[in-house]
Amino acid sequence: MKILIADDDPQILRALGITLTAHGYEVAVAHDGRQAISEAAAQHPDLIVLDLGMPHLTGIDVIVAVRGWSAVPILVVSGRADSADKVDALDAGADDYVTKPFAIDELLARIRALTRRTPAQSDEPVVRFGDITVDLAAHQVLRAPDAGSSAEPAIVRLTPTEWKMLEVLVRSPRRLVTRTTLLTEVWGPQYTNDTGYLRLYVSQLRKKLEPDPAHPRYLLTESGMGYRFVPDEEPAPN
Amino acid sequence: MKILIADDDPQILRALGITLTAHGYEVAVAHDGRQAISEAAAQHPDLIVLDLGMPHLTGIDVIVAVRGWSAVPILVVSGRADSADKVDALDAGADDYVTKPFAIDELLARIRALTRRTPAQSDEPVVRFGDITVDLAAHQVLRAPDAGSSAEPAIVRLTPTEWKMLEVLVRSPRRLVTRTTLLTEVWGPQYTNDTGYLRLYVSQLRKKLEPDPAHPRYLLTESGMGYRFVPDEEPAPN
DNA sequence: GCTCACCGTCAGGATGCCGTGAGGACCGGC
DNA sequence: GCCGGTCCTCACGGCATCCTGACGGTGAGC
After folding, report:
1. ω before B119 within 30° of 0 (cis)?
2. Where does the Response regulatory domain lie (chains A, B) (predicted)?
3. Which residue has the higher pLDDT, A216 or B123?
4. Residue A146 near chain B (CB below 8 Å)
5. Coil, strand or helix: which one is B228?
6. pTM of this structure
């Protein structure tokens, strides 16, 4: 769940960012109206927390611009408590309006209320290699059936640890992933020196994903350093 | 566009009724919590303006009850400005919270904001799997009769908790639903660690929905991660 | 050819998670 | 007050997952 915070006060920006991150949200920021619009377009946030009093563009302009192409929930935060301001913002397309100063608990509750109506729709990518399809959003791995057969794609069952490991590798295609980063990402920050699980789980992943586990083609090992996920470049029709 | 106003103060009730009628809304009224629930069920309003401080039932109870079967927008009006009250109401399922005294213009703008958002999601689908039909809009689950029999579809009775859980799963077909998201969606944002209810309700849902509860086909469990609803694709030959 | 470090794989046991039944607490209806 | 329904707690058997230890293979350096 990604939230875009648009505010020209760096202090508020920072405080809000910390709070939202602590509550499990992914956070993007913008310092003025123009940036708010471009970030909203680039990041596809699931919600926008928008300060009305920003330079370059008024908050109303930002709302109208974003509403031009997106139905993302917009929560306006403003120092002005005048009802005319609220009416203007809400009628421009905002979904909620909170006046400063506000209780952070209330803001969080309002964020939950708004995101409750439009759940998820994350645009996580789908990674393909060989006859394997990794769907990051659905947490699912599928194996395409043999060519010519019209059977269903088969579900590849992964254990939680196997999945986390595959996720880390697949999110950094073609890049070397150090043994220590793999350990900390999958098992936690306190795990730093390998005692053998890495080799085990790489082995099991290869057994489940590689066409020929003995000669890996996608999950490569860099001796002494770590592992590397390499998707096949061109389709390789041969 | 029909709005249900629930308030025990006849003066406010009357003033709001006149204003809303003048703005083209159809108006229904309730004088206490119990009546609010029954009117909401009978009238199917497009929005509910709910006073928190009513006799017979607290406003929170009304929200929870209505949310048990309906997603109608709920705008809470209350004399209490304490942020804890706001958080409780919003987390119970309210969509907005306005403190008295309020400007009538602002209330109207918030009503417009809430009603603007809902028609977009009026495409409540009907989900089918096996001999089960889940009607999200009607909040009903039906089991088709045996083939050849000309009997009526039987209604499958679900408790409120079972329904919420099924709804969350069915709304994300094929996607893994984490244990924590299930908990927060069904029991509320403050519930985050399982103490066993999840397993219990999944078990009961399977007992009511699965053709063979011992070998689930639609409500699958991903050990260590969560659950997944998988509708059947095409018949899947061989 | 030898050593050594590193990697891949297998099997077995410990741990934690899952499904399910029984029973108590609570609440609204009669 | 009694009763039916719903929700939750607790306990137990079964199983998936995880980790450990051991063994063999490979390649680099000498």
Report:
1. no
2. 2-115
3. A216
4. no
5. strand
6. 0.70
Chain segment B21-36, per-residue pLDDT in tens: 999 999 999 888 888 8
At B104 the pLDDT is 94
Q: Residues near A134 by Cβ (< 8 Å), separated by ≥ 6?
A: A126, A127, A128, A140, A141, A166, A170
- Which backbone phi and psi does A82 adopt, to 5 degrees? -65, 135
CB of A200 within 7 Å of some strand C atom = yes
Query: Binning pLDDT at 50, 70 and 90, where does residue A237 land?
Result: very low
Is a pLDDT exceeding 90 seen at residue A91?
yes
Q: How far apart are CA B27 and CA B113, in angstroms?
A: 18
Contacts of B116 by beta carbon, 8 Å cutoff, 6+ apart: none
pLDDT of amino acid A238: 46
Q: Is B46 on the interface with A (CB under 8 A)?
A: no
- Window 194-213 of chain B: CB closer than 7 A to strand C: 194, 196, 199-200, 202-203, 206-207, 213
- List Cβ neighbours of B110 (8 Å cut-off, separation of 6 or more): A90, A97, B75, B96, B98
- Find the nucleotide nearest B224 (Cα to C1′): C17
Please check the confidence at residue A74 and state whether its pLDDT lies above 90: yes
Q: How far is CA A200 from CA A10, A122, B124, B137, in A?
A: 47, 32, 46, 48
CA Rg, chain B, in Å? 21
Contact between B101 and A121 (Cβ < 8 Å): no
List, for residues B129-155, the tens digit of each pLDDT value.
988 999 887 788 998 876 666 666 788
Distance CA B53, CA B60 (A): 10
* Angle, in degrees to the nearest 10, between helices B83-92 and A104-117: 10
Q: Which of A113, A120, A138 sits opposite B94 (nearest CB)?
A: A113
Residue of A nearest to B228 (CA): A138
HSE value, Cβ hemisphere, 13 Å, CA-based, for A233: 0
CB A46 within 8 A of CB A1: yes
Of B40, B49, B44, B39, which is closest to residue B19 (Cα–Cα)?
Answer: B49
What is the distance between the alpha carbons of residues A184 and A111, in angstroms, rounded to a whole number? 31
Query: Which DSSP symbol is given to B144?
Result: P
Instruction: Copy the structure tokens of residue B158.
Output: 């679900």
φ and ψ at residue B109, rounded to 5 degrees: -65, -40
